[in-house]
TrEMBL record:
Keywords: Oxidoreductase. This is Aldehyde dehydrogenase. PROSITE patterns: ALDEHYDE_DEHYDR_CYS, ALDEHYDE_DEHYDR_GLU. Residues 14-469 form the Aldehyde dehydrogenase domain.
Length: 471
């Protein structure tokens, strides 16, 4: 049984003041694997004090010094790549393929940040003024459970590049992943206080970070509901916020798309990260006159999806992270049927032979109307909604008829055609004919999918305060 009973403050693993514990459960079989002792407000305040103290010297470091620290972190995290993957699969239930990719993203966050930093100029001339981009201060980093290490690494790398120090609050459900990552960070041997990590609950540690006057900025990834609570709390001390929130991303299949290719890709894409992905294309918009063909192809694709043990290399969908998440997804599958959508594949209950874990059948609804709750609300499980449209104008209107605006996807045999549609979609990232990623391009949401952007220069400047000097 794993006991995670330390948090990380001022360069040391220390026993938290908090004594409450949280059970760690393997989502593949629901067996208890360990416990984490949760930090409390006192621990959070100690971590903030350590980060504040370290900021004075750290904010004055040169670009070269920061690059050297990022290189050390990169080396230390790379060394334990295989262990990081294995802990993530077992704690979180992500598939081997997904967890490998996610850990590689975590590792490459350091190198891509170094590249951004190398060419970034912290002083610029605008008009007849000199602009200095100064480190913001202590940053609170609050992350969810669905790709814990890569969020932590990306946010911490950016904070360090900007000369900010950090207090990190990961999801309590990612404690084993955090423990291993913290060991890597510790081995990198950074000066004390640059980063501090406090395990704990959102309404305790997260709330303290949100209200504390010595936190200058919060970089949050998580649900829109929590993001709103953080934004409201942060305003009292005028904290800067970067909020990466939920999504209900449309995937528009244009008339000229190759359905044989686009539909299986759309189905597998909707199930990325077991369907627990903020950018998952969960609304599949297809021409009404091709609906029968689409249904047939989609059903066939869903039947090919292996739901099962995430440790098996060919598994595409592993278990939901918790029984709570499993129940949430089940309730939406019931709701879809009550709302009158047609169940095309999957449905309620666990797949045969997988009764002990939080497994959900690869599910597709068709004949979905965009005003149904299954088309409007983030389900965060392997559930795809197929929504027919009559013409392109209607497709664009449906795509934009959502409170979210994180990502969108377009399939077409004509790139310019797809780009004309992309120009009309309200979303922070639009992928044409696939699911590509660019770690230098801004990432973030329109509307209620968030505030601000991460990655590259846009991400870096969100940790900096411009100061204009007129002489
Ligand atoms: P969540 O909002 O429940 O929790 C995220 C983090 O916030 C956790 O560490 C949690 O403990 C903390 N928290 C909870 N209440 C808090 C409070 N009152 N004050 C401060 N912190 C608090 O999200 P989750 O269930 O862990 O993750 C899933 C959600 O994250 C989904 O909605 C998903 O779309 C979103 N997400 C967004 C992105 C993105 O980049 N836009 C990426 C991944 C996940």
């Amino acid at each position: 049984m794993k006991q995670i009973n330390k948090i990380y403050i001022n360069g040391e693993f220390v026993t938290p003041n908090g004594t409450e514990t949280f059970d760690l459960i393997n989502p593949t079989n629901n067996e208890k694997t360990g416990e984490v002792v949760l930090g409390n407000e006192v621990d959070t305040r100690m971590a903030i004090a350590a980060a504040k103290k370290a900021f004075t010297a750290f904010s004055k470091t040169t670009k070269e010094e920061r690059i050297s620290l990022l290189q050390k972190l990169h080396k230390a995290v790379s060394k334990r790549e295989d262990e990081l993957v294995s802990v993530m699969v077992n704690e979180y239930g992500g598939t081997l393929q997904f967890c490998r990719m996610s850990v590689q993203n975590a590792i490459s966050a350091f190198t891509t940040t170094i590249t951004t930093l190398e060419s970034y100029d912290f002083e610029k001339t605008v008009g007849h003024s000199k602009i200095r981009f100064e480190s913001l201060g202590v940053v609170g980093i609050i992350t969810p459970w669905n790709a814990s290490n890569s969020f932590i690494c990306n946010k911490l790398a950016t904070a360090i590049a900007a000369g900010c120090t950090a207090v990190i609050k990961p999801s309590e459900m990612s404690a084993a992943q955090t423990q291993l990552l913290t060991e890597c960070f510790h081995e990198a041997g950074l000066p004390a206080g640059i980063f501090n990590i406090v395990n704990g609950l959102g309404n305790v540690v997260g709330a303290e970070i949100t209200q504390h006057p010595d936190i200058a900025k919060i970089s949050f990834t998580g649900s829109t509901l929590t993001g709103k609570a953080i934004a409201k709390g942060a305003v009292d001390t005028m904290k800067r916020v970067t909020l990466e929130l939920g999504g209900k991303s449309p995937n528009i299949i244009l008339e000229d798309a190759d359905l044989e290719k686009a539909i299986p890709m759309a189905v597998f894409g909707a199930y990325m990260n077991n369907g627990q992905a903020c950018i998952a294309p969960t609304r599949l918009l297809v021409p009404q006159n091709r609906l029968n063909e689409v249904n047939e192809l989609a059903k066939k694709a869903a039947e090919q999806v292996k739901v099962g043990n995430p440790n098996e290399a060919d598994t595409l969908v592993g278990p939901m992270v918790s029984t709570k998440q499993f129940e949430r997804v089940q309730s939406y599958i019931r709701l879809g049927q009550e709302e009158g959508a047609t169940l095309l594949a999957g449905g309620e209950g666990k797949p045969e032979g997988l009764e002990s874990g939080n497994f959900v059948k690869a599910t597709i609804f068709t004949n979905v109307r965009n005003d149904m709750r299954i088309a409007q609300e983030e389900i965060f499980g392997p559930v795809l909604s197929i929504i027919p449209y009559n013409n392109e104008e209607e497709a664009v209107a449906i795509a934009n008829d959502t409170t979210y605006g994180l990502a969108a996807y377009i399939s077409s045999s004509d790139k310019e055609h797809a780009e004309r549609i992309a120009a009309q979609i309200d979303a922070g990232r639009i992928c044409i004919n696939g699911f590509s990623h660019d770690p230098y391009a801004p990432f973030g949401g329109f509307k209620q999918s968030g505030i601000g952007r991460e990655y590259g220069v846009f991400g870096l400047e969100a940790y900096l305060e411009p100061k204009t000097i007129l002489a």
